[in-house]
């Protein structure tokens, strides 16, 4: 009897994971089909993307943050922020491992780091959280709002790193490489080990020859000459300083003005991106959520007593209702765009197959294992979060099981040229391979996580 009950419970857990994933896959498949039928084209997806970025996502993030977060959740927010940074660093490490161990194309040495560091923390976690949190063992609507608010922290921090703190450089820098650099042979792990071994043997030979010369009676063999190869030559350093000293000095005012202009030129774009609709909506949402007097205008707060509207609800509840209504279009629209993007991928001759396979193994198999271990450590051994906080524990795991962000595909398209298509092919193949296994890996990850927290 107990075994039968356990099997039924396990079957329910697996079905919850499959049900959430089916919603993701089938909606994206509709976008793929619309693209194949010519009903969804590049102009249409561009317009939809603008709507998602500037209207749908900001409305969804604002409403869920206001509904799900309060002053008592600041510790959880800090843990999620720390986790998002750790996952991006873990992905960056995965990219370094792939670059060191496989023959990544010379023209895509930094792009592979970006595909490891930045994941699809947008539509995929939103779909999964929104579906899974609606059924037991979760608390329905309240856990849905809280889970989506938690996911918004990952979205906000990754977007900030990519668009404010220069994460796009990892993509754009590959297109700044000189032709001489691109013509250098690509080195894999086997090549590096072979080079290291051969250089070690050559060093041993050179040391032996040097010792033999020292033992000889010839004084010329022990005469030392200044070594300048591979280090800074003091003479060159001194001469460069002299040249700097004789350069005409600029008036202090002009220098200050130049410095202020440079700072303004560097800071202004970052501030503009930070106040873009998605980031601004999350920031404003958190401000409203943690200030009880303001939050009471939107949702009921037990400690605050404000006059309600004619419908008996808080005065600005209708704004939250409108935001929820508009934000509901964000996830299905994003998935339609994803399906369109996948339909446009052309991979007749897949490049960097070994690199893509290793990245897929690291991101889709190793990453979730690390995430589950991190979640268990935080929940059971640190005292930072309650063991019974199921939605937080699930939110700590899901982002690590997501494939590379499709944003990397869009950014590569922006910087690529007609003569440089290999980078775009690499990103496309990495995405295709990871999305090909997501049905298996995400089902296992979600099922095992639900088994642990149920």
How would you characterize the overall build of this protein?
The relative contact order is 0.18. The chain has 454 residues and is mainly alpha-helical. The longest helix is centred in the first third of the chain and has 35 residues, at 2-36. The chain has helices at 2-36, 42-68, 74-101, 111-117, 123-132, 141-163, 169-172, 179-182, 189-215, 234-246, 252-274, 277-290, 292-295, 317-327, 330-343, 353-382, 390-397, 407-415, 422-453. Helix 2 (42-68) runs parallel beside helix 12. The protein is built from 19 helices and no strands.
Annotation keywords:
single chain, 454 residues, mainly alpha, 19 helices, 71% helix, 0% strand, globular, disordered N terminus
The helix content, as a percent range, equals over 70%
Count of helix runs = 19
Average predicted local confidence, pLDDT: 78
Write down the secondary-structure element order.
HHHHHHHHHHHHHHHHHHH
Radius of gyration, taken over Cα atoms and rounded to an integer in Å: 28 Å
The tally of beta strands, per DSSP, is 0
Detail the poorly predicted runs. 1-8, 209-253
Instruction: Report strand %.
Output: under 5%
Question: The biggest beta sheet, please?
Answer: none
Shape verdict: globular
End-to-end span in angstroms?
20 Å
Q: How does the helix and strand content classify structurally?
A: mainly alpha
